[in-house]
Write a structure and sequence with these properties.
five-stranded parallel β-sheet; binds 3-phosphoglyceric acid; Rossmann fold; alpha/beta; amino-acid biosynthesis; 60s Ribosomal Protein L30, Chain: A; six-stranded mixed β-sheet; 475 residues
């Protein structure tokens, strides 16, 4: 379950600064730049790539993702990932990452430009000059000083806008903008949208522009891009200053996001870091060397649970023990889910796959371990109508072992490797039964026992898989 990403060939399907290609190629990753592909061309090309880099123009639909049989990672050179079907990518085990900060300043500056331009009707005045007019009365504007600005979503860009607008003497509120907001605003309110078209009800905006309740709008983004229907009516409206999604279109922002996405890909391939992942945020922690044996333990516990329940785990609870283990819970749970789900699963898709297959995997944490180890992990799952708990830990530097079966502690930690059979019964009887089944075809490596008498759990490590009617797993 150790995390690794091997990228041979990446497709860049939107107009991304050339430094992206240069950086990837310098790190041994082949790159094809093919912009303006039709949907059909993209579907035909995508199976040849294990990485894809886009901006907002390429629609990475579930169909494209399904066709991308070899895709391992999709990178967005920019912020918004609404053009990527993230659930479909997650289900297929594909990492989706963006460059969350690269175009913040450019988008914030574009927002401020639109706010200022709206207040002074600059675009309309310019258009009238170009039409040969000199209309000073018509374009009487208003000062920004003393006005109130409501920012919907005070994230990175919102904060930068607030910061800049405060220097104009504008009071900033945080507020939610809903369909019913226009009547609550001052008559003549101005609206600026540099985020996504869908966050404003465009039909409602149009009506409010017509009625005068909204005094004007600066729109950089539209529900449909390029604008059609109501979006196009808004783009054409005399009270609207419209731009073709230019928020991030500056030389600086485009160089930054292109460089960032290329470097993020290279770092991920080299196992250095995983930055900007949007669909499995715990992966960055899973990459750390100290996480590797715990990922392996989690996956093996999941495999044993699947074996003991004959693949019918319907519910499992993963518990991490030890104060330092709390942050590891998410990736260990993903590793356990991958173990339960089998070979198709990886850390990105295991939780989604488990959910889809009706297996509920939850996690919990306890600071105390209750065993002579600093940390441990257990999985409680339903097997033969009753709950079974397997508890494991990591010994030495990186050896995953099983230490407890329900409340029974093993006489010695059981290495979770090789062929293991799990048998309930008195150890003497179990061995008497097993030994004759071997002979020349294999041998018993070691036996570990938890508990005593007929209720003992006997784990037998053998040189090959036994078909003796006992649950036996190759780890
Ligand atoms: O989400 C973003 O990063 C911005 O909207 C910019 O989109 P673009 O890369 O398509 O210009």
């Amino acid at each position: 379950m150790a995390f690794s990403l091997n990228l041979k060939r990446v497709l860049i399907s939107d107009s991304v600064d050339n430094c992206c290609k240069t950086i990837l190629e310098a790190n041994g990753i082949a790159v094809d730049l093919k912009t303006k592909l039709t949907k059909e061309e993209l579907l035909a090309a995508i199976p040849n790539y294990d990485g894809l880099i886009v901006r907002s123009a390429t629609k990475v639909t579930a169909e494209v993702i399904r066709a991308g049989k070899n895709l391992k990672i999709i990178g967005r050179a920019g912020t918004g990932v609404d053009n990527i079907d993230i659930p479909a990518a997650s289900l297929q085990g594909i990492i989706v990452m963006n460059t969350p900060g690269g175009n913040t300043i450019s988008a914030a500056e574009q927002t401020c430009v639109l706010i200022s331009t709206l207040a002074r009707h600059t675009a309309q005045a310019d258009a009238s000059m170009k039409a040969g007019k000199w209309d000073r009365k018509k374009y009487m504007g208003s000062e920004l000083l003393g006005k109130t600005l409501a920012i919907v979503g005070l994230g990175r860009i919102g904060r930068e806008v607030a910061h800049r607008m405060q220097s104009y003497g504008v009071t900033v509120r945080e507020r939610l903008l809903g369909d019913k907001t226009f009547p609550l605003c001052k008559k003549g309110v101005y609206v600026v949208n540099c985020a996504r078209g869908g966050i404003i009800d465009e039909a409602s905006l149009l009506r409010n522009l017509e009625s005068g309740q909204c005094g004007g709008a600066g729109l950089d983004v539209f529900e449909t891009e390029p604008p059609t229907g109501v979006s196009a009516q808004l783009a054409q409206h005399p009270k609207v200053i419209a731009c073709p999604h230019l928020g991030a279109s500056t030389v600086e922002a485009q160089t930054r996001v292109a460089k960032e996405i290329a470097e993020q890909f290279v770092d991920a391939v080299q196992g250095k870091s995983l930055f900007g992942v949007v669909n499995a945020t715990f992966l960055a922690d899973a990459l750390k060397p100290q996480a590797q044996p715990w990922l392996s333990l989690g996956e093996k516990l999941g495999k044993v649970a699947a074996c003991l329940s004959q693949g019918k785990v319907a519910k499992a609870t993963v518990t991490t023990y030890g104060a330092d283990m709390k942050p590891a819970g998410r990736y260990i749970t993903a590793a356990v889910s991958a173990g339960i789900m089998g070979s198709e699963a990886n850390l990105v898709n295991s939780s989604v796959m488990a959910k889809e297959k009706g297996c509920q995997v939850s996690s919990t944490h306890m600071d105390t371990v209750g065993l002579p180890y600093p940390a441990a992990v257990s999985i409680t799952f339903n097997c033969d109508g009753k709950d079974t708990t397997l508890t494991g830990t990591v010994v030495g530097l990186d050896v995953p072992v099983l230490v407890k079966f329900d409340s029974l502690v093993f006489s010695g930690a059981v290495p979770l490797s090789g062929n293991l059979s799990f048998v309930k019964g008195s150890p003497g009887k179990v061995l008497a039964d097993l030994v004759p089944k071997f002979g020349e075809n294999g041998s018993i490596n070691y036996v570990h026992v938890a508990g005593g008498g007929a209720e003992s759990i006997v784990v037998v490590s053998t040189s090959s898989q036994i078909s003796a009617g006992y649950p036996c797993i190759a780890l």
